Here is the input.
Amino acid sequence: MSTPARGPRPGRDDSPDRLYTVTGGRSRTHSDAFDLVTLVVAECDPTPGMQSEHAAILRMCDYPIAVVEIAAELALPVGITRILLADLLDTGRISARHPRRAPESAELPEPELLEQVLVGLRNL
Here is the structure.
């Protein structure tokens, strides 16, 4: 029995030379601003002569988008994507923030209210 042929794995099968070129030889970022769920928003449009990956990031960040989604869209490893994002953050071309979390003191709705909402949704 033969094993199914697999296509290239995005970001994993890229030439090391290409990844080295994309990051300018850097393997780490100096910033801790980005984890997988950090939301990124473009603060400007791409400019002529900009590195193609930077321009692609700015085009896809018209609305908040997570770092992991950007990496998937670019088909690059998350570590490489973080380096590119740090470049854009340093130049003020993007802003980044972590998703908001509910304060620990926030009250949850009463279970009866949630049940009524669920019943209403089922009746739609």
In short: The radius of gyration is 20 Å.
